[in-house]
Amino acid sequence: MSQQRRLVLFLSDVEGNLTALRQTLKGVCEGLDLPCPEVKWVEPRPESLADSGWHVAEIPLVSGKTSGKVSSPEEHVDAMTQALSRDFRDRSMGMYVDREHSYARVCMAAPSRPPRAMEGEYLDVLRQAARWLDVETTALARLFSGNAARNLLAAAVDFGPDGKAVEAPSHPAPPPEPDEDDRFVEAKLAQAKQLMDQYLNLRK
Fold this sequence. Notes:
Residues 161-182 are annotated as: Disordered. With 204 residues, the chain is α+β, with helices and mostly antiparallel strands.
């Protein structure tokens, strides 16, 4: 499950009804003058997504770009997601990932609510999608990146908010030199300790 381009659909509380899913996608594609794509459940279903009540389906994408004026299914992920939410009367999310170009687009739809969408850098979109699904980012990354998910996210931590690499210090910074106030306090503490020791000795 580590293809560079993936189109994945997340459906909430669907009882494995692949026929109904295909019917909805067929209706969307006919309205857009698109060939109806194949669709299949992702097996085995990722455990964390299953625990959160999500069923995961995938539309296999053809390698390379389509010729002529025929558009591809990933160009209509928003329309597909909204149609699924309407027909199944529940939340649905569609996500297209192109890892080769570090690009992704996600759309979340729910009945009687305006859809939400985001596109851009793969890791940024991945984190937002995980929040919408209420799962850990690593769990969602594993669906798209396989065993490389943890390494991918760990590498992203090495970059600051401005996108520049942040080098970890090789050793801790030395503590600052004590100033005059620090030395005064330390002297008073030492004097108090000495007086306390003398007092305790007198009581013996």
